[in-house]
Amino acid sequence: MKGNKYMIKLKNVSKFYYSKGVIASGFTKINLEFKMGEFIAITGESGSGKSTLLNVISGLDTYEEGEMYVNSEETSHYLEKDWEDYRRKYIGNIYQNFNLINSYTVYQNIELVLILNGSSRKEAKPKVLELISKVGLTKFKRAKVSKLSGGQKQRVAIARALAKDVPIIIADEPTGNLDKRSADSIIKLLSELSKDKLVIIVTHNYEQIVAYATRKITMHDGKVLEDKKLKEVEYKRPEENNYKNINLFNKLRLGIINTFNIIPKFILLLIVYLFIIVSLMSEYSYFKKQEHENAKSGYNNIFIDTSEERIILKKKDKSNITNDDIDKISNLENINYVVKNDAIIDSTCFLNTTDDSYSIDGAPRNISMLSGKIDIGRLPENENEIVIEGDRNDYYLAKDYKKLMGKSYNLSADGSYNDPSAINNIKIVGIKYSRNDDKFSPYSQYKIYLSNNLINGLQRNISKTSSNITMNFLDHNIKLGRYDSEYKITSNKSVPKGSAFIAEYNKYDCPNENCINKPITLKVENLYYQDTINLSVAKYYNNKNITSVLELPNYSNDDYDGTIIYMSPSDYNKLYKDDSYQASIYVKDVKKLNTTIKKIDELGYETLSMKDVLIQSDITVVIRILRIIITIILVITLFFITYFVIKLILKSRNIYYTTVRMLGAPKKVARQLLIIELFNITNISCLVFGIILYLNKTKLINYELLSTINTYLELNDYIILYLILILLSFLISEKYAAKIFKKSVMNSYREEV
Q1: Cα–Cα–Cα angle for 447, 451, 456, rounded to 5 degrees
Q2: Helices and strands: H and E segment counts in the chain
Q3: Mean pLDDT across the chain, nearest whole number?
Q4: Of 89, 96, 479, 672, which sits most exposed with the smallest number of CB within 10 A?
């Protein structure tokens, strides 16, 4: 203490109050010294400045003039942090109005001081119980303070002040609410404490403490009227309270206690936060729904079936997709069905009657993809039987269906009449009318459901249209096409395997006008495979012998084409395979699409989600931008609305946070306790709303808004909204804390009492 024996010294200290332009004096030009070991009684009539003096000495209030010294150190330069340290290190207060936390028990009120100063629950317990016993409240230790009498509350306040174990005890009318016997015991206890501490008491009942007081100070009209020494005291060096900072666990514990200790407050805050959640989620899900609906109307120039349930799959080594692959994928969760011959999905197939009376084009589908009942006819029973799906108002399907179903058709992938590679003798045995919400290809009016064998045949037909064939004949490489080409190839069952029949006039290009046994090499290439077929010329044909050399039904001389090279069906099929190198998977639940894709990728396949390749319209982009803008506006609006409401709800809590600061907690800790309390409410409200969403999902409750949220919001959306809620809670708590902590402790307290 630098050789000085005073603990606190006031030199010409004055305190003024400013209210609506009027200046009032709390006290003026006070000069006092306070030493360790003193038991000082301050008396005077009401309004003389006694309590104001205690508040300044306690560091709860500021002073405007003069200098206050603590251990010879000037305090006029102190910041709020310095006063916080001072109160924690030196001051234990016993307030006239108790300043207890009514929603806490007796035990919790006393424990709070120790917890705020860094004690653990285990360390605090024996000391708390000892102090409760000392003030005679053992049987009330679990009682809430709000249920106690005034005298009992005063004892709790005294026990709480003693719990800090600090050098200075400052008491404002500590016996005002006690009976004489209790008052005498408390005064005696404070007197005993003064042997090692500085005890300052403001009292109107000086006679009650005269036997113990070492000094009497009388105040009048804000000035010291008398400063009378009654007893000599032995000087003691003060032992500072070596406090620690409250740990995270105790902050969380206090935050949880504060969340539930006032049930009406908790319910009101929960309702406010549920309102925020519903507002954010309803707005967010509405725009997600609009975005989703517009996204479904996106298009792609390559893929015809743009269903959002579709995932395209291929092997990483580009090899053939086998039935084992299909079984492995089909066993995954959320798989509705798998289409092995994927190419048919994005193709159009053509049905032409042999008499050219009907021509139908449509989107080919595997019969396993057919759902619902057949409206006319029946399901296929034979391999060559098919079902047509189309609009109920279509003339063919509604009025002319009997003729339609009575015809025989050729099935092909390019629609050419009398295509030699077309699949013949196709029968329509069933018609299904589409629902209004069914999606159809923009390029096809109908869906045509085919058996597996027909799909395979059509797959070969599709492979033919997407493959390049190069023929090497007589050391010349010639690119083949089906039309406008020097040569064409097709199959005929009259041709033996490994052989080729060519037009007779081609022999003139061969040495010695003989092409028999000359090699022909065909090389096929497409996106997925390449292969080579070696043939040799076995026969010639011309327009006179063609029907005897080749089996050609309905042949006429007008059909003769000498550019065609005929080969066996087995060799032809080697060129145009029905193998599947790409498959399509259709999921049951689009919300689980990303999870399903991840599981498929883990099996070693490459995937492409249809929703990722759609070209979106401008309106989809506009909706996405609007969603972001409106969400920001909504968050800002909700911030101000909820801040105003929460401020009203938490107004009763201002006393709590002010009391915590009076007990020595730094502003930072009080702010953190507020943040934790609001964070707890945020998490609880999210949990409650999550349960409500689950009940809606399981159909225990049925509400359209909840169904929309369940349908269109994904995990990442919930995470984004949760982070927005956390941000809102943080901003609200910060703004609220800035309001109640912006002034000195006593100024904040006066505004709330």
Answers
A1: 100
A2: 21, 28
A3: 85
A4: 479
pLDDT digits (tens, 9 = 90+) for 116-163: 888 899 999 999 999 999 888 999 999 999 999 888 888 899 899 888
Tokens of 359: 């021509």
Structure tokens at 267: 């319910």
The pTM for the full model equals 0.63
Assign 628 a pLDDT band (cuts: 50, 70, 90). confident
| Contacts with 365 (C-beta within 8 Å, 6 or more apart), sequence order | 344, 345, 447, 448, 449, 450
Distant-in-sequence, close-in-space partners of 266: CB < 8 Å, separation ≥ 6 = 259, 260, 681
Assess contact for 52 and 28: CB atoms under 8 A. no
Question: How high is the pLDDT of residue 439?
Answer: 45
Torsion angle (degrees, nearest 10) of CA 355, 357, 363, 364: -30
Which residues, at least 6 apart from 704, have a Cβ–Cβ distance to it below 8 Å?
none
Question: pLDDT for 666-700, tens place per residue?
Answer: 888 888 888 999 999 999 999 999 999 999 988 88
pLDDT at 355 over 80: no
**Please, are residues 362 and 447 in contact by the beta-carbon 8 Å criterion?**
yes
C-alpha distance from residue 225 to each of 30, 35, 39, 387 (Å): 10, 20, 19, 111
Is 259 in a helix, a strand, or coil?
A: helix
Q: What pLDDT does 41 receive? A: 95
Helices (H), 451-557: 452-465, 546-549
Q: What is the pLDDT of residues 241-274, one digit of tens each?
A: 677 888 889 999 999 999 998 888 899 999 999 9
- The alpha carbon dihedral of 227, 231, 232, 236 has a sign of negative
How far from each other are the two terminal CA atoms of the chain, in whole angstroms?
38
**DSSP-based three-state secondary structure for 303:** coil
Strand 446-450 to 376-377 pairing: unpaired
Q: Give the angle subtended at the CA of 449 by the CAs of 443 and 451, to the nearest 5°.
A: 135
The answer to whether the Cα torsion of 712, 714, 717, 721 is positive or negative is positive
Task: Please give the pLDDT value at position 640.
Answer: 87
- For 138, 227, 287, the CA distances from 208, given in Å and listed in that order, are 26, 18, 74
Q: Are strands 223-229 and 215-220 parallel, antiparallel or unpaired?
A: antiparallel
